[in-house]
C-alpha cells in the first residue's frame, strides 16, 4: 500500500514560523495598536528574523490586515450561516449576537485591536476588510427586514443595530484585564461571556420589537 507523502521539513518549519509570527503580531497590535507596534519586537517575540516576516506578509500593514482579514472572514461566515439558516427572525437575531461573540471570544486579541483602530479612524484597514463589514451589515439588514415584514420588528437601520451589538461585546472582551484587576471585592465585575451574550440579545430584541413586554404596558 503506497505511503502518503509527508510535508517536507522546510515546509513544516515555514508553517510553524508563520504561526509564531501571527501570534506575536496579534499580541503586539493588541497591546500597542498599529503605530506603536514594532516589527523588530514581533520578530524577537516570534523567534524569527525580520526578513522572514516581510517575506510572508510584505509589510507591517500587510501583517496587520492579514490578522483583521482572518477575523472578519470568520465573522462573515458565521453570520452567513445564521442569515441563511431559516427560522423566525427573532431567533436568527439572537443567533447573530451569539455568533459575533463566539468569534471575538476565540480571538481575544481582536477586541483591543479593533477598539484602537476605531479610535484611529480605521486608517490602516484595507478595502478587503471593509468589504467584509459591508457583507455583515447586509445580512443583518436582511434579518431585520424579514422581522419588519412580520410586523413583530420595527424598521431599523442595520448599522445602528450593529453598533448596539458590537459595542458592548467589544468593550466587554477588551476589558478583561481591567476587570480582572478590579473584580476583587466587586463580584458584579466577574461576568461570563454567556451572561453578556444573553444581556445583549435581550437588549437588542427589546429595541427592535414592536410588542410591549408584559409588566411594561402603559
Task: Describe the model.
With 218 residues, this protein is mainly α. It has helices spanning 9-36, 39-46, 50-57, 60-83, 89-106, 110-119, 127-150, 158-174, 176-182, 193-208. The longest helix has 28 residues, at 9-36. The chain is globular, with a radius of gyration of 21 Å. The termini are far apart.
Summary?
With about 220 residues, this protein is an all-alpha fold. It is built from ten helices and no strands. The longest helix is centred in the N-terminal third of the chain and has 28 residues, at about 10-35.
Q: Characteristics of this structure?
A:
218 residues, mainly alpha, 0% strand
| Radius of gyration using CA atoms only | 21 Å
Amino-to-carboxy terminus distance: 77 Å
Largest sheet: none
Low-pLDDT stretches are 214-218
Number of strands: 0
Rounded average pLDDT: 86
Give the topology.
Layout lengths: L8 H28 L2 H8 L3 H8 L2 H24 L5 H18 L3 H10 L7 H24 L7 H17 L1 H7 L10 H16 L10
Helix pairs in contact: 1-2, 1-4, 1-6, 3-4, 4-5, 4-7, 5-7, 5-8, 5-10, 6-8, 8-10
Amino acid at each position: 500500500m503506497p505511503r502518503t507523502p509527508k510535508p517536507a521539513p522546510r515546509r513544516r518549519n515555514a508553517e510553524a514560523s508563520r504561526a509564531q509570527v501571527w501570534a506575536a503580531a496579534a499580541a503586539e497590535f493588541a497591546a500597542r495598536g498599529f503605530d506603536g507596534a514594532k516589527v523588530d519586537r514581533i520578530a524577537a517575540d516570534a523567534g524569527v528574523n525580520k526578513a522572514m516576516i516581510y517575506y510572508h506578509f510584505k509589510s507591517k500593514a500587510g501583517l496587520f490586515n492579514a490578522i483583521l482579514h482572518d477575523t472578519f472572514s470568520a465573522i462573515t461566515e458565521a453570520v452567513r450561516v445564521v442569515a441563511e439558516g431559516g427560522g423566525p427572525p427573532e431567533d436568527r437575531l439572537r443567533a447573530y449576537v451569539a455568533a459575533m461573540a463566539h468569534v471575538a471570544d476565540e480571538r481575544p486579541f481582536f477586541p483591543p485591536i479593533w477598539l484602537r483602530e476605531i479610535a484611529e479612524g480605521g486608517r490602516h484597514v484595507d478595502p478587503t476588510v471593509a468589504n467584509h463589514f459591508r457583507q455583515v451589515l447586509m445580512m443583518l439588514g436582511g434579518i431585520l427586514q424579514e422581522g419588519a415584514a412580520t410586523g413583530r420588528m420595527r424598521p431599523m437601520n442595520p448599522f445602528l443595530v450593529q453598533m448596539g451589538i458590537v459595542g458592548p461585546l467589544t468593550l466587554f472582551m477588551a476589558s478583561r484585564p481591567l476587570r480582572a484587576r478590579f473584580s476583587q471585592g466587586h463580584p458584579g465585575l466577574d461576568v461570563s461571556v454567556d451572561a453578556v451574550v444573553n444581556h445583549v440579545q435581550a437588549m437588542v430584541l427589546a429595541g427592535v420589537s414592536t410588542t410591549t413586554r408584559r409588566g411594561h404596558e402603559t
